[in-house]
Amino acid sequence: MNTIRVLFVAALATTVGASADPCKLRDELLNPYRSPATATREQWRITKDAVSALESKSCDGPRDEASRAILFQILEKEMTLNYGRILQDWEKQDGRPVSEGAVEGLSIFQTELLAYVDRITSPRDLPFRNTILRYGNGLAISKLGRPVVDAVVEQASHPPAALDGTIRHNAQEEAFRAIGYWLAPENNVIDAAEKQRLGRFLAGALPPDGVTGSGLQYRFTETLLRAIGNSDDGDVEAALGAWRQKHENSQGSGGSLDRIAGESLEKIRKRMKKTT
Q: If 183 and its partner were Cys, which of 15, 127, 201, 230 is the partner (CB 3.0–4.6 Å)?
């Protein structure tokens, strides 16, 4: 991964531009996103270096609200920017294809940015809830707590109009993941009745015939199965067991999704024993 990061940086530029305080972000870091067609590679590199420096520090995210706002704007821009067009322009300028390292580096940057947002998000970031709900991972979403529960359930009820970023982020899938965090017995964001209701909601979202494809559908189903495993409800256990049987009937036993379903069933049953 470090090699790919180096290739990406080299594809952009080789000079350094960092804030005196790495726990703060400057507004000018948004400039490449404001004018992506004319932004220089140096501007892109400075922005990405500043974010990477922030991610490596022990501070709990940007210290001031202005810097936090910039961070979440960078997240939104990263996940919505058409990098394909930018890379095409670079290829025309250079007369050669952009390196594979540069392309892969975009995905690495977005993945690490989302992991960082997972780490630092707290209820103080509710002013940025729309960005976090739409572009954040399930863990970050779950950390916003009770005020976003209804919005998360709504988001989980509908497929997104598009997948975001070079990593193909799925907002519905991340809403499922957030609900899974809330189902955990040690999590007190939602009460027992809501956990029961939402556990059944997740179980009902599994492919009804047990048939799953590859790629994005596989990833989607895996996320659901792992989230359901945080339940302690008997009806959820029964629904998951029935789904696993359908999956085995259609696609055979012993596959990875069959194994994950079995692990989630075991987790639910252990919790149910503790409560009886």
A: 230
